[in-house]
Design brief:
Blueprint (H helix, E strand, L loop, with lengths): L5 H6 L2 H20 L6 H8 L1 H10 L8 H21 L4 H26 L1 E8 L3 E7 L2 E18 L10 E6 L2 E7 L5 E3 L6 E8 L2 E3 L6 E3 L8 E7 L5 E7 L12 E6 L5 E12 L2 E8 L5 E3 L2 E8 L6 E8 L3 H14 L1
Antiparallel strand pairs: 1-17, 2-3, 3-13, 4-5, 4-12, 6-7, 7-10, 8-9, 10-11, 13-14, 15-16, 16-17
């Protein structure tokens, strides 16, 4: 192609590259402000039906896979390729520049591979169970293996002597005998007795269904925080009861032993999931994951992203697969060498 050709000059233009970068940057800001590939109900709840229909028509809800965004990336790729050809040289004093421009094209190719063939979604796994289903927006997708949640745990920042965190005060004959930190599943021995106490469940806004007698929560706000505890006596007899932070005398039975629940804002330090990969009925991999410490298997990556804030019975995992990542890493290597 002749270098005085108008089409060639257009694709080798620095002005075109700057314009494309600015447009892609502006569009990417939209993609960060509007959640991508969420459920239809979530969009309607957040923006209303009319705005959701507009976003859906413009493909703002799956922006990075939209035809017009891919077209912008294609123009950018052609611009980079034309610039490389225009300035290509194997001379030593030009090799760094050539490799640097080439690295940008390689990174671009890797990014396009991830955009076109990559997958991203969300899955919810209950403790003691496995799942091979995840959701990408409203679409249900299936893995070739199962993710099994062996155990889920939440760590909280402890209170100090001056400002203690959430805790239970134990009274015996109206005399304080101990203070217990609220930790789900942990069993405490009650001082001056041979009884034990274990915290089973927390609900922030206690409510009970009068028909089914099942306990639930009206909201996530601590309007009526309550704890379900199990008390095991010396002979092995056990009983469960609810204790309330705002209404300490509610359902309180006449007993020498009294529990007073002191609620405090819960500051989560870390939440973890012990996961196993089950394939063909066999365990292939086991790992405890937490935020920024994912599990990787066969090109898939599972990130800790959410959890059951009320009962700690399930873990929410972000599921991703990006075949373009190795190509992007090669591009970064070429960029480093070129520079």
């Amino acid at each position: 192609m002749k270098k005085n050709n108008k089409t060639w000059k257009f694709f080798t233009s620095i002005k075109l590259a700057v314009a494309l970068f600015l447009i892609i940057a502006a569009v990417s800001i939209i993609g960060t402000l509007i959640p991508q590939q969420a459920s239809e109900q979530e969009y309607i709840h957040r923006y209303g039906m009319n705005i959701y229909r507009l976003f859906s028509f413009l493909q703002f809800t799956c922006l990075y896979k939209s035809w017009w965004f891919l077209l912008l990336l294609s123009f950018l790729g052609l611009n980079i390729l034309a610039c490389i050809i225009e300035r290509f040289s194997l001379k030593i004093n030009r090799l760094g520049s050539t490799l640097t421009h080439l690295s940008i094209l390689v990174i671009y190719v890797g990014a396009m591979m991830g955009t076109i063939w990559g997958q991203r979604g969300y899955m919810q796994v209950f403790e003691g169970k496995g799942s091979d289903i995840f959701y990408s927006g409203v679409k249900e997708r299936k893995l070739d293996f199962q993710i099994y949640l062996e155990e889920f745990s939440v760590e909280y920042y402890p209170g100090d002597d001056c400002c203690p965190g959430e805790h239970i005060t134990v009274l015996l004959k109206d005399k304080k005998i101990s203070t217990l930190a609220v930790e789900m599943g942990r069993e405490y021995e009650i001082e001056q007795t041979k009884d034990t106490i274990k915290v089973l469940r927390y609900v922030p806004d206690f409510v009970i269904d009068t028909n089914t007698k099942k306990v639930g929560t009206r909201s996530r706000r601590p309007n009526n925080p309550a704890l379900q505890v199990e008390i095991r006596e010396e002979g092995g007899k056990s009983s469960t009861k609810w204790i309330f932070a705002k209404y300490p005398d509610m359902h309180a039975a006449k007993s020498d032993l009294k529990l007073v629940y002191h609620w405090a804002p819960r500051q989560v330090k870390q939440y973890k999931s012990k996961l196993k990969v089950i394939e063909g009925g066999e365990e292939k991999l086991a790992k405890e994951i937490m935020v920024n410490v994912p599990l990787r298997y066969k090109g898939w990556t599972f990130y800790q992203s959410s959890y059951d804030m009320e009962e700690h019975k399930w873990s929410g995992l972000q599921v991703t697969k990006d075949p373009g990542v190795p190509v992007v890493y090669i591009g970064f290597l070429l960029l480093t060498i070129g520079l």
